Amino acid sequence: MADTTTNEHQHQLLDRVVIRFAGDSGDGMQLAGDRFTTSSAVLGNDLATFPDFPAEIRAPAGTLAGVSAFQVHISDHDILTPGDAPNVLVAMNPAALRANVATLPPGAIVIVNVDAFDERAVAKAGYATNPLTDGSLSAYTVYEVPMTSITTEVSKDAGVKPRDAERSKNFFALGLISWLYTRPIEPTIAWIEARYHDKPLVKEANHRAFKAGYHFGETAELFESSYEVRPAALEPGVYTNVTGNTALAWGLIAASVRSGLPLFLGTYPITPASDILHELSKQKHFGVRTFQAEDEIAGVGAALGAAFGGALGVTTTSGPGLDLKSETIGLAVSLELPLVVVDIQRGGPSTGLPTKAEQADLLHAIYGRHGEAPLPVVAAKTPSHCFDAALEAARIAVRYRTPVILLSDGYLANGAEPWRLPDVDGLVTIDPDFATEPNHVDEEGNASFWPYVRDEETLARPWAPPGIAGLEHRIGGLEKADGAGNVSYDGANHERMTRLRAARIAGIAHDLPPVDVDDPDGDAEVLVLGWGSTYGAIAAGVRRVRALGHSVAHAHLVHLNPFPTNLGEVLARYRAVLVPEVNLGQLSRLVRAEYLVDAISFTQLQGVPFRAAALEAAILGQVERVRAGAAGPGGTDEVEGDNGKVVRS
Amino acid sequence: MTEVADAVPVPVTTRKDWSSDQEVRWCPGCGDYSILAAVQMLLPELGVRRERTVFLSGIGCAARFPYYMNTYGMHSIHGRAPAIATGLAATRPDLDVWVVSGDGDALSIGGNHLVHALRRNINITILLFNNQIYGLTKGQYSPTSEVAKVTKSTPFGSLEQPFNPLSLALGAEATFVARTHDMDRKHMMEVLRRAHDHRGASFVEIYQNCNVFNDAAFEGITGKDNRAEMLIPLVDGEPIRFGAEGQHGVVMSDDGSLAVVDVADVGEDALLVHDEHHDNPALAFQLSRLSHGPVEPTPIGVFRDVERPEYGAQMAEQIDAAVARRGSGDLAALLRSGSTWQVG
Questions:
Q1: Kind of pairing, strands B241-242 and B248-252?
Q2: Sign of CA dihedral B276, B282, B287, B293
Q3: Number of folded domains that form chain B
Q4: Can you tell me the mean pLDDT for A354-380?
Q5: Where residue B184 sits, what CATH number does that domain have?
Q6: What is the CA radius of gyration of chain B?
Q7: 3-state class of A49 per DSSP?
């Protein structure tokens, strides 16, 4: 690490810091945040990131609609969320300041690109007066840095046009923050060299801007102090920094490797799922076939066709794409073929909030098909857990010959965290267990193959891809006769098949680990039950409540259908069950229906993750309610939280 | 799977071997019966294996086809068979994949998948049973019904310009386009043989009579007594002529359009010579539009048969090239492909 401590500056140790880079969509804030994250990861900090950007690729420059931000939380201890409130805001223009200033706690550092605060830009952001001079930022420590002019100036003699040079100002900001937080500069310089090796002028401009930013921090008598966040004491192992979408793509490859099944992805580009396609399309040397279909329907159709042929068929989507795939998923339920359907949830209904996270597809995933069409649903809880969740979804799909819906969301997809790499030889092995021989004898004594004869333990039917003589068979979306698989319109058979399909999916519960309850004191009376990407925020909220001296338990579901077999017993142990969700209460509805438990829903749908503080307040509310003897069945009340709503009905 | 099958020579089969034990349930007199017979009689001649043959379909009367074939098969959902076939053919180049579809399935609900499968040149053989009516839903007009068609859903006549399936396929960059009909088994088998042998996507329109909801729609051109004067057999490299005595032919007019003429009026040398393999699909397109429905002299046979790389093979080549360049995928190395650091 470069020694950046100088005599002129103080140097302070921090246990953690939350930094938010904000600018126009075209300002490269995602890139700056991502590079800062990488150098922090390499340094050994624990971290969590939250990219927050608009759906428009380039909304009008300088407007609130066009503000793109990247928040990163780095710490010397293990952390669970990207942070409630930034300690530092880097604002590249007035709109970026205005869009984010409300989230800052008093005393936060605000670093602005003062060159962008001319009268017109200030007005365009909706300010009546210049916030840098009207005193409205007096609660913060504001540093005005002429980022545009210095960036342009340093590349003047490099042959870079001023207009082009200006575009490197995100690297100036990155350099400045790298100095302020004592990040090593070498990884970023190496990255610039590699990334822009074929564009010498861009490379030079970015390199110079980055260094100029770094040196500005060091030499300008602006900053009283630089800071350092030491490495976190993480579990021993090899770590990498990974986003949810990358981890998910790698999990699918792992499933292919561990099953010996070639991976086929049929998909259609959609935010925020497309990065899984991008990642898998690079990994052809794993035998991965990626097919960018004409639409969502063809994407899942091709995946199902590949599964019929004996491949690990996968489709990825988001939002309205899941609606479009519903019919084909229903066919897969009828065909009883393995299929992994990945849904990166986003705000809805309809096009909704394409770049914002929501957990509102749970009931759709479980129930969203006509007819009785049950299927397993698995949900990832952190970016790195997307790897395990993908492997688990594939395991269930192959073992039980069923489509599985794997739920992630926009927050997990783009968020990153350090991941302790697993030993690949220790990963689960998936046995495709293809049919190899006839399984029936017909009336004339000839060996034949019945596609709907079931395994006694799993109730799964044989998977017999084309290619083996004697196993020729026809399957389809019409109801099939139990066993033989021929078309059958018989009512009694239909009821039997419907119950068999349901029993097969329900029976998967016996193949799942029991739900793990985090209840260190063992005497908690309140259980917080979550699923999906709220894991970090709930765990952080629980931690805060425990720090106040209260006992509280946390359970987080990975399997949403079927539920683990011990869930009912777990829920019954607690006097109050609080279910925080980024929807209007979908899991709470399920557990109420399934277990007759008086689950209390705590919900928020603002396109952003829960804040730990909001969960702390909601959990405390339940702790106090139990203490007052109010918990237990009955009654209706409704309590407004500070950014969420508690409903008992 | 492939290795096991390859060890055994292709067995000699008959039509019976390719027939499943399921009772065929099309209406008596349906044109589908003759298509099923032609396919079941052709397959023993192709030297292919039952276990490497797959029939896929969507929804509609024609879509019941796979149930009657003793091969691997899937009766899927409305219009989606070309998409499902794409995934199967792209991952299993060792298979013969047939897609059986109707005018509603392929051209209405599944139009998008059809044109993209053709454009991509997926190695599949698509049979479009065109009866110009919706049969399974009991008699509504279809995307190939003639204008002003009176049906259950159009009591005052349909308003829509029909699709010309061959023009559509040619416009979708299809590499093999042909037409045959359900009244001539020999012709049907010959066209289907050609379609099967073509590498890439093959598209065959089969005029098929629905004797319940649109009876005799093609009688005017495919009827035994009408064929000679109303069907124009296309033969590669030969002048395009027809009629009991070969007395009619097709010429290109001065304005570039095609016209049916009497050979006696123009002389044999003036006739257009058919070229299936021409790089430019323009002539095939013109031939596809020579008649405006089955009421005028109508070309049948192979309109277009050109070579273009097949999608699944190219996909496999990209994988082989990636393996050659980087070696077979190593999962542990993949997980370490970004920046890593050691703790403890």
A1: antiparallel
A2: positive
A3: 1
A4: 97
A5: 3.40.50.970
A6: 23
A7: strand
Pairing of the two strands A225-229 and A237-243: unpaired
Unique residue bearing structure tokens 């110009």? B132
Minimum distance, in Å, between the CA of residue A238 and any CA atom of chain B: 5
Q: Is A615 on the interface with B (CB under 8 A)?
A: no
State the pLDDT at residue A646: 65
- CATH of segment(s) A10-229: 3.40.920.10
Q: Between residues A220 and B107, which one has the greater pLDDT?
A: B107
| Mean pLDDT of chain A, nearest integer | 93
Q: Would the CATH topology of A240-426 be identical to that of A517-648? A: yes
Q: Is residue B299 part of a domain?
A: no
Report d(CA A637, CA A600) in Å as an integer: 10
User: In this structure, which amino acid lies at residue B252?
Assistant: M
**Is residue A2 very low, low, confident or very high in pLDDT (cuts 50, 70, 90)?**
very low
Domain contains B280: no
In angstroms, what CA-CA distances link A610 with A278, A363, A536, A539, A541?
29, 20, 9, 11, 10
**Which of A294, A297, A302 minimizes the C-alpha distance to A263?**
A302
Q: Which amino acid is at A482?
A: D
pLDDT at residue number A631: 66
Which two structure tokens, joined as six digits, stand for A526? 């309140």
- State the residue for tokens 């276990």: B51
AA identity, residue A336: E
What six digits make up the tokens of B136?
A: 């399974």
* Mean of pLDDT values over A353-358: 93
Which of B75, B92, B339 shows the shortest C-beta gap to A309?
B92
Q: Which tens digit of pLDDT belongs to each residue from A176-207? A: 999 999 998 998 999 999 999 999 999 999 99
B212 found inside a domain: yes
Residues across chain A? 649
CA distance A241 to A421: 10
Residues in B closer than 8 angstroms to A475, CB to CB, are 73-75
Residue with tokens 């700056």, as numbered in its chain: A32
Domain enclosing residue B55, as ranges: 2-217+309-335
Among B80, B91, B343, select the one facing A262 at the smallest CB separation: B91
Is the separation of the CB atoms in A600 and A578 below 8 Å?
A: yes
DSSP-derived pairing of the beta strands A440-441 and A474-476: unpaired
Per DSSP (E only), the strands in A217-283 are: 225-229, 237-243, 263-267
Closest CA to A48 of A538, A418, A379: A418
Nearest alpha-carbon partner for B12 in B35, B33, B43: B43
Give the right CATH number for A240-426 from 1.20.1250.20, 3.40.1790.10, 3.40.50.970, 3.40.50.300: 3.40.50.970
Q: Using a pLDDT cut of 70, give the percent of chain B over it.
A: 98
More confident of the two residues B34 and B338: B34
Comparing CA positions, the residue from A531, A518, A588 lying closest to residue A557 is: A531
CB contact A41 to B (< 8 Å):
yes
pLDDT tens-digit map of A429-482:
999 999 999 999 988 999 999 999 999 999 999 999 999 999 999 999 999 999
Q: Tokens representing A398?
A: 């192959």
Q: How confident is the model at residue A634 (pLDDT cuts 50, 70, 90)?
A: very low
Establish, for the pair of chains A and B, how many residue pairs have beta carbons separated by less than 8 Å: 226
Q: Does a structural domain hold residue B265?
A: no
Which class does domain A517-648 fall in?
alpha beta
Buried b (16+ CB within 10 A) or exposed e, A310-342: bbbbbbbbbbbbbbbbbbbbbbbbbbbbbbbbb
CB-CB under 8 Å, B334 with A469 = no
Kindly provide the ipTM of the predicted complex, given to two decimals: 0.97
What is the Cα–Cα distance from B183 to B228, expressed in whole angstroms? 13
Res A211: pLDDT: 96
Neighbours of B6 (CB within 10 A): 12
- Token pair in block for residue A124: 């365009």
- Tell me the residue length of chain B: 344
Domain definitions of chain A by residue range: 10-229, 240-426, 433-511, 517-648
Whole-number pLDDT of residue A424? 97
